[in-house]
Amino acid sequence: MKSTCLPASLLLLLLLLFLEMSCASPLESNKPNFVLIMVDDMGIGDLGCYGNTTLRTPNIDQLAQEGVKLTHHIAAANLCTPSRAAFLTGRYPIRSGIAGFQYPGVFVFNAASGGLPSQEMTFAKIAKQQGYETALIGKWHLGLNCERRDDHCHHPSVHGFDYFFGIPLTNLRECQPGHGAVINPIKYIPYETLAIVLVTAAVLHYFSILTIPRWLIWSLLSLTLVATALFRGFMMIIPYMNCVLMRDHRIVEQQFTSENLTQAMTNEAVDFIESNSAKPFLLFLSFIQVHTAVFASAAFRGSSQHGLYGDAIHEVDWSVGQMVNTLERLKLRENTLVYFTSDQGAHLEEALHGSNGIYKAGKGTNWEGGIRVPGIVSWPGKIPGGVEIDEPTSNMDLFPTVVHLSGASVPEDREIDGHDLMDLLQGRVERSNHEFLFHYCNAYFNAVRWHPRNSSSVWKAFYFTPNFDSENATTCVNTQICFCTPGCVTYHDPPLLFDLSKDPSETTPLTPDSEPAFESIVSVMAEAVERHRRSVKPVENQLSVGNLMWKPWLLPCCSTLGQLCQCQN
User: Fold this and answer.
1) Of the candidates 64, 126, 115, the residue with the CA atom closest to the CA atom of residue 90
2) Which of 25, 205, 252, 320 could be a cystine partner for 569, CB 3.0 to 4.6 Å?
3) For the chain, what percent of residues have pLDDT higher than 70?
């Protein structure tokens, strides 16, 4: 009878192979999960943990109590599109071309050709390479198509997200009936000028001073009427062009109904966590609230003292609680880093009662109210609880932090402006790695922040500031957003200088008389600005007029050609 025993060498080989396979699973599971939460246009003063006493945010406050609260946390831009590009890539938006020289400074059409370039590396793309399941739920606002309405060259999937449920643009006023319009070309028709020209021409013609052919008068009137009709028709179809809800590459609602959208997003996020609880995952929960047009589901309407805006804050807080509860239920809380922030400050020009606390102005400006945002990082057992850090940090810092924790290395073939936060969060160092932070208003260099290595001061110099309304020293002269273009700003030479450690509200600019070191401080900052500018390489401007303009052939549409793009889930 032949023996069936395996040779000793083969048994040893199989045993080693078994041990290697058995060790792989725990090693994989020890990789931390990431739940990265970004609210749209939430002010730092909207949260109880940052001093608000009239809104209830117990879940977010608990997150801060269990982790680190960053009190000098800065958005890399003061508008949605560039801020989100910087968050995902760890780079100033000027480096990826997500910075324009004209209004509006963000994408306002789904049918635009600009977007986050595919060669940019996001933390989602790197995490995916490290074996993570990745999802973006909520707002994208970084482009969709390039040449066809379905090429999806700027889609979240191109940037490392395995799953996408959300809106490719943003929540515009047009997406909710009765909330007005952001895109209103009719207001740019010079009705008053046209009326004056026509009346003057008629008078001159009547007194025979000027002979005007009747056909010319009728042609001008007809042209005005046709242009007005076309513009009004364009405004009527904007909700179907821009208010689109997608699941991966498929449109599920066009125009979307926003009332229960946060509920749906929360359910999607919970499902994603549950489905991937046995493997490492990265979830970017990008709230559509509290951007205009503000909404809240029936369960939260009327729950606050601050109208729909406050109701929306309450709903966001509930959703954050659902994320944490899900992690605890699945016993994932101690292996998950949770980060909470906003993409910029509250939008004061919209008069929605958002609060930027003690900080000046709001969204669209680089005053502290426009870019000082909540920053909460919680990871029980790895990051101490109840800690407050006042060192300058940036939401660009999440890129290298996530990359390192996922087991990868930060790319060396490009400038990365963020710094890994873990040493600071875990108390191994007391100083931030950000000596300088640079602030752009669209593509215009606006201000610089300096935290000297041997000082507790944080200096901030403005090279121009927006022109405020004469009746309100915190909002800009136009009705919707602050502009960065010449004619809408005041230039400063020498720059306006503040010491934020003593004057965080930026109330009193320093002068050579009030600050003896004024000249040397301004000189050091100017040298840093020049070094930074030399590091910025020319790239295609994704927010140029050509890349921003509406192109009908790029319009995403869930119905067949010849029909109005409309569908409901």
Assistant:
1) 126
2) 252
3) 87
Look up 434 and say whether it is catalytic: no
In this prediction the pTM is 0.88
Helical segments of 30-142, H only: 58-66, 80-89, 123-129
Query: Rounded distance, CA 558 to CA 568, Å?
Result: 10
DSSP 5: P
CB 315 within 8 A of CB 169: no
3-state secondary structure of 340: strand
- Of 49, 72, 73, 80, the catalytic one is 80
Q: Which of 72, 73, 141, 152 is catalytic?
A: 141
80 is catalytic: yes
Q: What is the pLDDT of residues 319-358, one digit of tens each?
A: 999 999 999 999 999 999 999 999 999 999 886 779 999 9
Identify the pLDDT of residue 4.
46
Give CA–CA dist 354/346, Å, rounded: 5
Cα–Cα distance measured from residue 153 to residue 155, given in angstroms and rounded to the nearest whole number: 6
Contact 76, 95 (CB under 8 A): no
Give the contacts of 198 (CB within 8 A, at least 6 positions apart): 217, 220, 221
The answer to whether residues 163 and 254 touch, using CB atoms and an 8 Å cutoff, is no
d(CA 296, CA 316): 9
- pLDDT tier, 185 (very low <50, low <70, confident <90, very high otherwise): low
